Amino acid sequence: MNAFALWAVALAAAVLVEAFVPDRAAYHAGWYSVALAALIVLLFLRTREVTRNADRVRRAALYAIAFGACVFGFAGIANGLLAPDPRTLVGAPGQQLALGDLGGTIAFPALDVAEPLVLLRLGRAPLSIGPRRYVGSFDLRTVRRTVVRVDAYDANGAHLTITQPAGSAFLSPVLLMRTTQRISGLDLPFDSFALPAAHRLVKVVLFTAQQVAAMRGIPGPAEPALLFAVDDETDQPLPHSIRFARSDEIVSDAGVRLRASVLDYPAVEVIAAPSLPALVVGAALMLVGLAMLLYSARTPSRS
Amino acid sequence: MRAAAPWLFAVIAIAVVLIVLLPLFRANAPLSAGPAGLAGQRAPVIDLHDDRGAPVSLDRYRGKVVVMNLWASWCPPCRAELPDLQRLWAADSARGLVVVGVDQGESAQRAQSFASSLGVRFPIWIDSEQAYGRAYAALGLPTTVIIDRRGVVARGFDGALTYAQMRTAVAPVLSSP
Questions:
Q1: Cα–Cα dist A235/A254, whole Å
Q2: Does A133 map to a domain?
Q3: Per the CB < 8 Å rule, is A94 touching B46?
């Protein structure tokens, strides 16, 4: 009986950990699923032994507990083997990105308003994600990332359209800085945009305040800074077209004036977790089994 | 009871396995990229100013069919398309059609002078933040979105349309209540 309880509790606990702390890569490793399957087998074998000479109520109670624990186990295995690995969905302000796992889209707020990310699904009310929300079999968490908002002007000061042919949003002045470029041994956030009216391509590298301080040899915090490299529309570098600028500083570079602001902006981490309905069913079965065990312990055996 | 138990447990087992696995095999909603994927959704509304500096909003046109065209002066297909949009507006404005040109990222002065040079008379809005471009999932310029009288996106198009294509796209939306 002790081994039966041990295997059942271990199985349920191993999957509950997945539900409460879902952002661990271990759950998607093969050994974790094998371990859960082994616990199911051990529990099955032990259940056969403990139910052999039990009366009817006690046998049903033990089966219910075993079955509830197995539901936990199957939910954990399904999550480990079939659910996608954790990922971060990064979008531009005002953009809606498909989240196929939940059959909906994530709406990203405007840059200048403190609104949360929202999950939109057909036929359902919009769902504010907030710092963290459990939806279906997924744990959605809002994380903050550094983005760069750029403005560009021609020599006469007229505002220019910014496009990102390789970005997630074509018409966005917000660079999401999703790739990195290695400079002087540092992996630095990197992005690029186009100025079609000026026939220019601009590459942008971001330096954190600490990196700027280290480069200058100045102790203490400094401001984040950006490196602009302006190319022509065929991606050929132009002479004297590399400029270093602080956040919000306007610099003239290869016939255009550029201003970039370093900002915080939300993204959403999408982390698969064991199916919530399955966990509820499993927990209910185990509780019913426990209640029946208690009942059978208080009443004399009639079998 | 003893004979029924294995069957009962088998049925429960199958039910439980289905509960566990079904969410993972749920058919994902097909979400097509670009403005066409917005069809059927409420049209995003972002308040802007027009090329004369007056505040403007899509909400003002509720009850009318809106053809919203995202454009910029540096875009050759936009230049080719704007006169046809002007023709469409002139032909169907009496039937409740509104054409709005939303300049993406340029100054009001540049947008105004460019539109004037092409004889455009319909409203020109200035979207210096390019917010409509992102909200309507523009893949490039021009982008055209048709919004019905209820404020719902009826059609979305990536790239320039001919006048005939505009008429074909607008006709069913104009004729519906």
A1: 13
A2: yes
A3: yes
What is the span of the domain harbouring residue A292?
2-83+276-298
Same domain, A78 and A96: no
A190, A216: one domain: yes
* Domain assignment of residue B24, yes or no: no
> Which among A70, A137, A171 is the nearest to B104, CB-wise?
A171
Instruction: Convert B21-49 to b/e letters by CB count within 10 Å (16 or more is b).
Output: bebbeeeeeebeebbebbeeeebbebebe
Tell me if ipTM is over 0.85. Answer: no
* Chain B residues inside the 8 Å CB shell of A71: 16, 19-20
Residue A303 lies in a domain: no
Which structural domain, as residue segments, surrounds residue B52?
35-175
Both structure tokens of B171? 């006709």
Q: What is the pLDDT along chain A (303 residues), one digit of tens a residue?
A: 688 989 999 999 999 998 888 888 888 888 999 999 999 999 988 998 888 888 888 899 999 999 999 999 999 999 888 888 889 999 999 888 888 888 888 999 988 778 899 998 878 889 999 999 988 788 999 999 999 999 999 999 999 999 998 888 999 999 999 999 998 888 999 999 999 999 999 999 999 888 888 776 666 567 899 999 999 989 888 888 899 999 999 999 888 999 999 999 999 999 998 988 889 999 999 999 999 988 888 776 554
Q: Does B21 touch chain A (CB under 8 A)?
A: yes
